[in-house]
Amino acid sequence: MTSTHKRFKTAGRCFFLLACLFSASFLFAQKSPFSVALTTGVAFPTGKFAGKEFQPINAMPNENGAARPGLNTNLQINARISHGFFITLKGGISKYNRDTDKAQELYDMLYGPGKTKLKSERWEVIKLLAGPSLHLPVGNKLSFRTGIAAGITNTSVPSYKNEHSAQPGQSALTSRYDYDVDLSTAFAYQANAGLGYKIGQQLSLLFDVTYFGAKAKGTQIIYPITGGPGPGPGMQPTPEPIYLHHKYPLNAITALIGLEWQF
After folding, report:
1. Residue 207 · residue 256 · CB < 8 Å
2. What is the spatial distance between Cα 161 and Cα 156, in angstroms, rounded to a whole number?
3. Tens digits of per-residue pLDDT, 154-199?
4. Dihedral through CA 66, CA 71, CA 77, CA 78, nearest 10?
5. Which distant-in-sequence residues (6+ apart) come within 8 Å of 178 by Cβ?
6. In angstroms, rounded to a whole number, what is the distance separating the alpha carbons of residues 149 and 64?
7. Are 175 and 164 in contact (CB under 8 A)?
8. Measuring CA to CA, which residue among 93, 151, 174, 124 is closest to residue 5?
9. Which segments in the chain show pLDDT lower than 50?
């Protein structure tokens, strides 16, 4: 299964998730204590998710994501339990371009400077979380918002594409590295704090800062190349496959702005 296929699967799951949340908001529209909010902003990877050191994935496990700051979009539904206390359901997607500078340095060392040009697909992280939140009034129109949530997240390892410079009279050679590493759905957690400002009877402007944490895991299976026929009298035994266990932290801090519609 290629990374491109995984990316389409990830996008499909995200659209399905957002459609479910949006549909749920209309189901709850006839009931008073509900609101729906859409926020978007910049996500800043932290720790090893932002780590730039490159290690070929089929050499040894690599926890560095080399993720650059990206775009995060969230859709959430709030259900008021009591005055100021809510239960919140959140779904969202984050997209990060991957920094290829360190990997490019390695290929320049192997093939010579300027001989290859390396490109990478993006990280795409989808999430679904739920948890308690507080909305505390600060004035007539301003409120302080904070909360915690836990749930699940899903992603896949982006693939690299390496384009070799063309020789005189020849076309450029392009090679693609699709890593067959299926990352399992992982536990995720999130904490947020921000402000809400009423700009209408049912509409509020939201400002939010969020910390998101998760660690996706997956196993890569490598089948060693054999130089002759399989097992038999006088034959070399078929080598056992090699299993590499990968862990990718997906931690990020996100600054968001959006709108909330109060029913």
Report:
1. yes
2. 16
3. 998 887 777 766 565 555 566 555 555 678 899 999 999 999 999 9
4. 80
5. 2, 3, 4, 159
6. 25
7. yes
8. 124
9. 1-5, 8, 25-30
